[in-house]
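Below is a filled-in request sheet from our internal design queue. Each sheet records the structural input a requester submitted and the sequence that came back. We keep these sheets so that new team members can see what a complete request looks like end to end.

REQUESTER: design group, bay 2
PRIORITY: normal
MODE: inverse folding
CHAIN LENGTH: 493
BACKBONE (tokenized):
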């Protein structure tokens, strides 16, 4: 299932009428040529109709990029630029917009063909704020053609997330489990972001599941599960029920996504789920997530929203984990200290019952859910996928609305270490620089819940930019030791 948008960035060059139009024309052509040489041309469209100098030019350019199917826009200051027309273009364009500007190429241009776009970017940014227009402006937004091509390429995953969220429906089933108030989900901010939310009862889901009994497609899904699990298929008897549930969710998505092309799910998985359905849904959740359809546990609506951002940015499967338990000193001394440049407080275990897709686990095995089996018969707790998470770079992050509708976020890069966990579930030994301080002064201080989204790779830069574009009021990150958090005690030892 294709569950994220394809991005096409329209490149529109602008020019102030007292500057030579040729400056912007030639610089736009050089930019497009540089982009195509480095990244190909499928992601960009060069608006050839005009150089925007006036409001009428702006309307012509707007119509042209719309007709070309562009869902993102780059306003390129080939010279100083017309602050009114260029910012009106950003205001009227229905999609994410970035601004960047041309640097002076060499000494020769300084006499007669100086563009002054460095100055023009200041006026553009000022006018964007006057109009309350959101725009992506890179950390350093002025450069030569190759550099600006790189900036546009870095904008693509940010734009993909913004377009995806605007066209996303989150489907949830059941209220949160008892004692999971931490995963609160005020829906006002979802609507502010353009996201649709459909909240359903567990009974609705149970009815739909029962209607799929003896579905003719079940054997094919079971065969696909068997192929994926291989030697890890230790609970073959549960696969038909899991296949029935997978088909239930996929059919529900098709029947309920309505006007939105993209979907994420927030599912119920306990306490009544196991006894009524007769299994746990972890493995099915992992399979859908592998297909780009994030499914969060415990009806964590902002968890699946965060996961979806990661899917858009990384173009890969993600997962949702508890920031779960500390690393025993014994394990740290035996397996980490001296091998890796991390202190004990930089490390922790990220865990969930079995929602991480098989491709991200070492030797995944189908088992029963150990925690639930402490109080329930084994027979109703099968269906979880266990294994240590594969080592490699990760990004830990979350977007969350507070109960009083303030949008907060955090993002931190780290890695999963090649260290055996000696534990159960989908689990890994995580290391993030200054995690102990980050845990206290970002996660605890700002009231974040225990679930964090994980993208497999270092994507801190684009995820941070997505949060900025969404107007998150705070974006926490793991600050280095020489920079104190606002409420960090400077006298602590």
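RETURNED SEQUENCE:
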């Amino acid at each position: 299932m294709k569950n994220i948008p394809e991005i096409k960035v329209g490149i529109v060059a602008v020019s102030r009428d007292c500057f030579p139009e040729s400056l912007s024309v030639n610089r736009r052509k050089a930019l497009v040529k540089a982009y195509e040489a480095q990244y190909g041309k499928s992601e960009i469209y060069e608006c050839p109709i005009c150089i925007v100098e006036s409001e009428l030019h702006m309307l012509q350019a707007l119509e042209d990029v719309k007709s070309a199917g562009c869902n993102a826009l780059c306003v390129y200051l080939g010279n100083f630029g017309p602050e009114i027309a260029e910012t009106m273009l950003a205001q009227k364009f229905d999609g994410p917009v970035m601004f960047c500007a041309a640097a002076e190429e060499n000494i020769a241009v300084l006499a007669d063909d100086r563009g002054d776009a460095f100055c023009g970017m200041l006026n553009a940014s000022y006018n964007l704020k006057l109009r309350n227009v959101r725009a992506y402006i890179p950390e350093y937004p002025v450069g030569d053609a190759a550099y600006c091509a790189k900036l546009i390429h870095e904008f693509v995953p940010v734009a993909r997330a913004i377009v995806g969220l605007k066209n996303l429906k989150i489907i949830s089933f059941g209220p949160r489990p008892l004692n999971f108030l931490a995963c609160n989900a005020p829906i006002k901010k979802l609507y502010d972001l353009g996201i649709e939310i459909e909240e359903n009862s567990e009974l609705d889901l149970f009815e739909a599941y029962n209607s799929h009994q003896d579905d003719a497609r079940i054997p094919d899904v079971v065969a696909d599960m068997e192929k994926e699990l291989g030697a890890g298929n230790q609970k073959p008897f549960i696969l038909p029920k899991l296949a029935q549930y997978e088909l239930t969710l996929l059919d529900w998505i098709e029947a309920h996504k309505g006007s939105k092309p993209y979907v994420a799910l927030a599912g119920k998985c306990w306490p009544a789920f196991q006894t009524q359905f007769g299994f746990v849904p972890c493995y099915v959740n992992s399979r859908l997530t592998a297909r780009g359809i994030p499914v969060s546990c415990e009806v964590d609506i902002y968890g699946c929203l965060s996961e979806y951002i990661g899917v858009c940015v990384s173009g890969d499967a993600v997962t949702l984990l508890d920031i779960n338990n500390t690393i025993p000193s014994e394990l740290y001394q035996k397996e980490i200290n001296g091998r890796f440049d991390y202190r004990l407080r930089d490390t922790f275990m990220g865990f969930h019952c079995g929602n991480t897709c098989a491709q991200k686990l070492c030797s995944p095995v189908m088992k029963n859910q150990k925690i639930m089996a402490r109080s329930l018969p084994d027979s109703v707790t099968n269906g979880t996928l266990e294994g240590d998470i594969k080592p490699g770079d990760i990004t830990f992050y979350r977007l969350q609305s507070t109960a009083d509708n303030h949008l907060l976020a955090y993002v931190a890069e780290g890695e999963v270490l090649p260290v055996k966990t000696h534990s159960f579930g989908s689990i890994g030994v995580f290391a993030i620089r200054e995690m102990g301080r980050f845990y206290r002064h970002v996660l605890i201080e700002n009231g974040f819940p225990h679930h964090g989204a994980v993208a497999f790779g270092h994507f801190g830069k684009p995820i941070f930019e997505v949060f900025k574009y969404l107007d998150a009021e705070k974006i926490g990150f793991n600050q280095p030791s020489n920079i104190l958090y606002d409420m960090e005690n400077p006298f602590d030892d």
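SHEET NOTES:
- The mean pLDDT is 92.
- The first strand starts at residue 9 and ends at 14.
FILED BY: M.R.
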